[in-house]
Amino acid sequence: MKKAILWMFVILTVMQLVTALTVTRDVAQSVGPNQDFIVTYSVTGVSGKWGVVIEDIVHGGCSFPAGTKYGGVLLSDEGTTKQVTVRAANAGSCQFDGNYMYDETTGEIAFPTKTVNIASACVISTEICDGVDNDCDSQIDENNVCDCKENWNCDEWSSCVNNQQARDCTDINKCGTTFQKPLVLQSCTAGNGGTGGDLCKYMEWAKSISENNYCVIGLGIIGGGLVLLLLLMRK
Ligand SMILES: [Ca+2]
Ligand SMILES: [Ca+2]
Question: Distance between terminal CA atoms of the chain?
Fold first, then answer.
């Protein structure tokens, strides 16, 4: 019985490692000079020991409320999404190149470097929910434009190639935001292009546990159950 418990512990630990976090930073491509715009940090997945510690840095004359750096802890202090207002420089471009960390074993993980171009003047367009003052009236996303409820419709996962599978997801309501966007890339356990993607079809019952990692969790639970059964039968 001790062995069985040990096995369950090992399986759950492996599942925890596979069920990794996804941390994203969304920034507009282009903003007007001295214009305020919003940087959105989002986390999906399960936290490690502490939350996700974010240390982002901006260069090129743009500034966070506290200067060139933004620091925050998602999942513990700030929830799963944090929006920070950044003031653009008066010309040129700004680069973001910070990092995040959620576990001392993985250390600091760099965000992809992101460049925001600063247009020569604020170009007036219809205000949409994108973290930018589109209509140049010094207000970001005003008139409830962000009340649009995202409604994502996703294709089936592709078959498992190189331990990864992908799918396309489309927002039926065309809100222009990606706060609720489901994962479009996930790791899978098929080995060399095998049938893991097909196997996942039978694990959909585990979606009630985790929408994004149901396949791994389902396989883990079934695998753990089988090991337990085998060990009990050997007694
Ligand atoms: Ca506006
Ligand atoms: Ca806007």
Answer: 9
Please tell me the distance between residue 227's alpha carbon and the centre of ligand 1 in angstroms: 59
CATH topology for 22-143 is Immunoglobulin-like (2.60.40)
- The pLDDT assigned to 195 comes to 45
83-111 average pLDDT score: 90
Q: Parallel, antiparallel, or unpaired: how do β-strands 22-26 and 36-44 relate?
A: antiparallel
CA–centroid distance, residue 140 to ligand 1 (Å): 5
**Domain residues of the chain, as ranges?**
1-19+148-235, 22-143
Query: Which tens digit of pLDDT belongs to each residue from 59-77?
Result: 999 999 999 999 999 887 7
Tokens of 147: 């009340």
- Find the helix or strand (DSSP H, E) in which 187 lies: strand 185-187
Nearest ligand by distance to the CA of 131: 2
Mean pLDDT, all residues of the chain: 83
